[in-house]
Amino acid sequence: MKVLATYSIKGGVGKTAAAVNLAYLAASEGFHTLLWDLDPQGAASFNFRIKPKVKGGLRSVLLCKRQLDEVIKETDFLGLDLIPSDFSYRNLDLKLYDARKPDKQFRSLIEPLAQEYDFLFLDCAPSISLVSENVFRAADLLLVPLIPTPLSMRSYDQLLRYFRKSPVNHLALLPFVSMIDIRKRLHKETLNSIFYDRKNVMRAMIPYASQVELMTVRQAPLCSYDKHSVPALAFARLWEEIKTHL
Amino acid sequence: MNTLIFDIPRNQSVKATESLFRQHFHLRKQVDRVTTRTYLDTFDWRVFKSGGVLEAESDKTGIWLTWRSLGADQVYGRYPVTRIPRFVSDLKVTGFRKRLEKVLGVRAMVPIVNVQSRSHVFTVLNLQAKTVLRIEIQSDRAPYQSGGKSRIRRKAMLGSRIHVFPMKGYEKTVDNACTVLQEKCHLIPAVTDPVLTALAAIGCEPGIVSQKPTVADPVQRTDTTAKYIFRHLLETMVQNENGVRQEIDSEFLHDFRVAVRRTRSLLVQMNNVLSRQRISGFSREFSWLGKVTGPSRDMDVYLLSFDSFKLLLPKEMRKDLMPLQEFLGRHRVTEYQRLIRVLDSERYRVLKRNWKRFLGLPPPKRLSLQNAGRPIIDVASEKIWHVYRKAINQGNLILPEAPATSLHQLRKTCKKLRYLIEFFQDLYKKNKVSRLINSLKVLQNNLGEYQDLVVQQITIKKFIHAMEEETGLTDNTRNAMEMLVFRLEQRNLRVRMEFAERFSEFSSPANHKLYRQIFTTQKKPYGGTR
Description:
- The complex is a heterodimer of chains A (246) and B (530).
- Chain A has a single domain (2-244), classed as Rossmann fold.
- Helix content of chain A is 42%, strand content 16%.
- Chain A has eleven helices and eight strands.
- An eight-stranded mixed sheet of chain A has the order 3-4-2-5-1-6-7-8, with helices on both faces.
- In chain A, helix 1 (15-28) packs across helix 11.
- Chain B is of the alpha+beta class and 530 residues long.
- Chain B folds into three domains: 5-201, Beta Barrel (Hypothetical Protein Pfu-838710-001), CATH 2.40.320; 222-359, CHAD domain (Alpha solenoid), CATH 1.40.20; 375-522, CHAD domain, CATH 1.40.20.
- In chain B, strands 1, 2, 3, 4, 5, 6, 7, 8, 9, 10 and 11 form an eleven-stranded antiparallel sheet that branches.
- In chain B, helix 6 (222-245) packs antiparallel against helix 7 (250-269) and helix 8 (276-304) runs antiparallel to helix 10 (322-344).
- The radius of gyration of chain B is 28 Å and the shape is globular.
- The A-B interface holds A 1, 28-32, 48-51, 71-74, 76, 78-79, 81, 115-118, 219 and B 77-81, 91-92, 94-96, 123, 128-131, 167-170.
């Protein structure tokens, strides 16, 4: 099982849209896929019409009272399952601090799922905390959406600095441009510097488009109902590129 | 087993059932589908024996491969495919494939039966308009055998049923739905899985690979018994012919050849049972058939062993062996074309026709042949004891420096012995005969592996020359193949050293006593009343 996390220190960069669509694309190719909505806002769960609620809360899973497998919900899309968000995730850091080996909790939780799933996508909440450390240790690929703006680039540089200080050997960092609006001069200029300065940025770019926002109205992955739209095709290109790194 | 399939009684309409169910659940109707379900299994029913069902469901939107439990209470995986796969290796590398591979191994998925079905699909939605359950009302038409023509007639319906597809995380809904279907819609949980109904409709009994002939009457005339076994072997050949022609799985050719070999072996043993004049022609023809089908089987064996060949080489050399695989693949195509020509030939047709006619002749009333009218148990015991003694004598002469040909001779004798014991095993006490077969198998495995390794070394050397002549050979590939020969030789030496121990187990006093006890002192048949 390959673990892919959509992660950014900054919020509102398109992590959930990427996680939802990439997970859908993986499942539609026949890979048994699981998406874990780690964001207490529960946007990914909402996109699949699944109540952002885990019975017994997070505590029951972390204390191993319930297996992670027991809280999985099947989505409307064949081969795609979801672990819903729960409001108790807001206290995830505190709960992890109490546990033994706090930075390896996720890894041991997801280990039993490796037999059943081909891909696990982690849709992370924006922050850099003990939860993030758990994600870094559990994931094989860290997909980092970058909006071509100075603030977004600054948070990415913060992340790079963090990894320089505390490297995680097995983890590959894959940034990609997200929510780009080529009509904006700032986006255009920043884009040039992104590709010039950072060699590992993926070629596929996700445009800023109202279709992506409309996903929350349809409550389904964009690629499932409008697969020929520009952003859906961009997600498909991104998925193809990600697969070359697996 | 908690089945999730419910039969709709013939006196209850599908519409009525649907409206009864609608009173309790918020249903959303999806598109109606006309599907063809093709049930797949290996030639030896590996899926069925593991308690599963593998079905390829195709409609105009695509093909889905579903692997589920018998009774449909569990779906192990559902996988989109562009065409019905033949081997697991045709599927993408996913967890589904890895799990299925554990059941199927390298065997092909053979289409067994096709069922056309009209389905009304519904989804049960919760308050968030999320699907929590899928329901399909399926009406099956009469099934037809894969490869055969559809025998669908307009009114030939097999009946209707409701299939409940549970969704993970919404188990309560499944329980509620099952309760409503039983109590409010008056449906009965299906007693048999639809696959079993379809198989029964085409007269196919799952799980039976090839029925062994049962020779249970110890006092039956030997000539009658022999003809019965020959008829069975001929049937096995004919049954496997289609699989050979379609190149579904190499196992079909293997079974075909085994039937030929067993026929030849028994023909030799039936010298004083059937007229020598009559059977000598058949012996010659079956020998021809064995010979002409050999090269195709050899290619299959080399291709099946290819991965194990690669493992014999150091990692960095393995890729250099790939041209050999391509060479084998090319030659397999040619050999199979030759094989099909043999199966289409007049000579083969005449052999089958005459053999069938000969086997169908009534036993002669006046017996001129010594063993023809004797009870089978006497003749079988004599033959088995004789071949066993021959094996012991041959084995005792094999010293460490004996040539490979002596081991090959012993291997052939052991094969004859095994066939004889297996043909007539039902005449003797089962547990004792099983012990003998097991001890014989151990020796046969050693001899078989030794002989295969000897032949493989010679053949791979021949392949080196053939490849050089055909397409040229890079130094790396030649080195890899020469290294392979060297490794096979090393392995061969190890196997050869094990022979003495295996043979001493086979010829142990305890085993010898058992052979003597069963095949020489048994004057009264087991369970018989002579």
